[in-house]
Amino acid sequence: LPAFGPLGTTRTTVAGVSFDMVKLPPGRFTDGEGPTRRELLVSRPFEIGTTLVTQALWRAVMGDEPSKFRGEDRPVEQVSWDDVQGFLVRLTDLGFPGFRLPTEAEWAWAARCGVPTRWSGADRVQSVAVVDVARTAPVAGLSSSATGAFDFSGNLWEWQLDGWAVAPPAGVDLQAPASGSYRVHRGGGWSFVPQYARVAYRLLDAPGCRS
Asked: What is the per-residue pLDDT across 2-12, written as a single tens digit (0 to 9) for each?
């Protein structure tokens, strides 16, 4: 069973498009695999989206459509870390301040929920992750994690707030500065094999990368 349950869900509507955020309690957990395993503590409650940002929401906020695989309920792709910062600024301008990317530690806690599964919510990748396929899929099409949030594993790689750094051995509210040449993304993607969608897998890219 999950180590906790979500504390509640809030719904926000922007220009007629709604999205949900689930509030999660603090937690201590193990992230990584093998030599990268370390114990982390997220000491404060936080909220995270129950789905990836959809193309409908991106268009409602930004007014454009960058995605290759079109569909209102598909996740927006071809979006860089820098583009996401513009999205957050625009949300604030529209009267919705306070949104940000999750830290890498927050993302890992939300994905695993204290349950040591290889993928988010399961040890069978097929039940939770869109991987090794020809295109993205609509959000929330497979099983969720214990938080009630979807697509932590597969569909699209997910940008994190953190800059890239070698994973430290342990810590409380760990966050690498959002500076330097690279940013962290996690979770795997539609065209990648299942191993890359493991919760423990980390990857990096330049903040301007839209692939």
From this structure: 456 678 899 99
